[in-house]
Design brief:
It contains 12 helices and 21 strands. It is of the alpha/beta class. A hairpin with an 8-residue loop joins strand 17 and strand 18. It is globular and about 70 Å long. The structure holds pyridoxal-5'-phosphate. Pyridoxal-5'-phosphate binds next to helix 10. Pyridoxal-5'-phosphate (PLP) binds next to helix 10.
Length: 451
């Protein structure tokens, strides 16, 4: 069945049409593509500028400001801290813009941590998370005075051993796995992180063992508790449930002599409006205000909260611009394929999670609607960006399409599959724009190979 049309959609304010041209802030998207095409076409085997990621600086700042306004309204200015989830998009320029808004960073690998340090995030406001931290990553975190979430018994042992080796104190939080049922976090199973059978967090039956181990080491400072329930959450009441769960555990720990439990790190990423109002069947999407309110209303005065948003900060700031290579039909006419130059290696979310991304023409024309699969050139039948999608106008070879809401987990999950270079990234600020990442070429791909 065809998905809903794109005629009456609600766009994020940074992206809009003016005289049939699609704009990012004040800059027509086709002008960026055109200029890049002219300036870079001599390079890299005359490859075109597309596929091309374009981000809006104003939208990024607006999203962060939304959180800050909600925190201020809840009178929690010094008590709820925004730690940007670097995994969503680790472009250094973009991270720098986030840092300038006084955010911290939550990282899940040594290189993400290094990227946060390089961008100038305050080390005390960087947190290393992850269920499989390696010794070199723990060392990097401790040497720089970053916090860590303890994910398991062996993770606790590793952190203790690195703290002893460096003779450095380690500020840690315990990541709790409350063992939820899938039905209590109605998101894609790949995006659930606190289920009974999840690989993340200390399961409740091992909690005391981990606690005793940490308490026995004087270099360990247990400063809080963490729980992350999943991503693309639509209903903010889950944050209240997590807050209550963590507060209960905290209370028990206090009676056992843990007196420095200053932080609750309440993970769980709020969803964004990928459908732009075109899917009436979806449950209502809570706002950042709902999220903050759900937490703030339960907080005792001596507790501070870290939240870890990624998608809701960068998701709707980015589009993927792709050129139509041609149109073809299946023999029985049951399928019409729009073959574009972006593929699953550039944006894997549709293939990986059957995720929906809205598709819009970069130049509007008057032509008839029809239903298409939008597919890439990668040699996989699962390589698609949209399936059974109603496009509001006839796709034409050489024209551009914008795949919406790809700022989070777009370029961050991109790969070199089929030896395709990762796309270029551009940041728009009003009517100015600049390249913030060059596209990868053949040399970038073979540089690390040994002939
Ligand atoms: C531990 C942790 N923190 C933060 C995030 C960011 O979530 P989101 O991008 O949905 O806001 C994730 C994503 O899954 C995560 O696993």
């Amino acid at each position: 069945m065809a998905e809903p049309g794109a005629s009456q959609i609600q766009l994020p304010t940074a992206f809009h049409y003016l005289n049939n041209d699609f704009l990012c802030e004040n800059t027509p998207v086709h002008l960026i593509e055109n200029e890049l095409e002219n300036t870079t076409s001599g390079e890299d085997d005359c490859r075109p500028a597309t596929p091309l990621y374009i981000y809006s600086q104003a939208q990024l700042q607006r999203n962060i400001q939304g959180y800050k306004n909600a925190i201020q309204s809840a009178k929690m200015l010094d008590r709820i801290h925004i730690f940007y989830a670097v995994k969503a998009n680790a472009n250094l320029h973009l991270m720098d813009l986030v840092r300038k808004q006084n955010c911290g960073a939550v990282t899940v690998s040594g290189y993400e941590l290094q990227a946060a340090l390089k961008t100038g995030f305050v080390p005390e406001m960087i947190l290393l998370n992850g269920n499989g931290k390696q010794i070199w990553e723990i060392r990097l975190a401790l040497k720089n005075g970053c916090m860590l979430n303890v994910d398991s018994l062996f993770d606790a042992e590793n952190i203790i051993s690195v703290a002893r080796e460096l003779q450095k104190p380690a500020r840690v939080l315990i990541r709790v796995n409350p063992g939820l049922e899938q039905s209590s976090t109605p998101v894609h199973s790949y995006l659930s992180t606190a289920l009974k059978n999840s690989k993340f967090g200390v399961p409740l039956h091992q909690f005391d063992q981990v606690l005793e181990l940490l308490k026995a080491e004087h270099l360990i400072q247990l400063v809080g508790l963490h729980c992350h329930v999943g991503s693309t959450i639509r209903d903010a009441t889950v944050y209240a449930t997590v807050t209550r769960t963590l507060l209960d555990i905290r209370q028990k720990l206090i009676t056992q002599g843990c007196t420095n439990l200053k932080y609750l790190d309440i993970g769980g990423g709020l969803g964004i409006d990928y459908y732009h109002g075109t899917n009436q069947g979806q449950s209502p999407l809570s706002t950042t205000g709902d999220l903050i309110q759900a937490i703030a209303s339960l907080l005792p005065p001596d507790v501070e909260v870290i939240i870890e948003p990624g998608r809701s900060i960068v998701g709707n700031t980015g589009i993927l611009v792709t050129k139509i290579l041609g149109i073809k039909k299946s023999p029985d006419g049951g399928k019409q394929f729009v073959v574009v130059d972006a593929a699953m290696n550039d944006l894997i979310r549709p293939s990986f999670y059957q995720a929906y991304h809205h598709v819009l023409p970069v130049r509007k024309t008057d032509s008839s609607e029809d239903v298409y699969d939008i597919v890439g050139p990668v040699c996989e039948s699962g390589d698609f960006l949209a399936v059974d999608r109603r496009l509001t106008q006839q796709p034409v070879k050489g024209e551009l399409l914008a795949i919406m809401d790809v700022g989070a987990y777009g370029i961050a999950m991109a790969s070199n599959y089929n030896m395709r270079g990762r796309a270029m990234e551009v940041m728009v600020d009003g009517n100015k724009w600049k390249i913030i990442r060059r596209r990868e070429n053949f040399d970038s791909l073979v540089r690390t190979m040994i002939d």
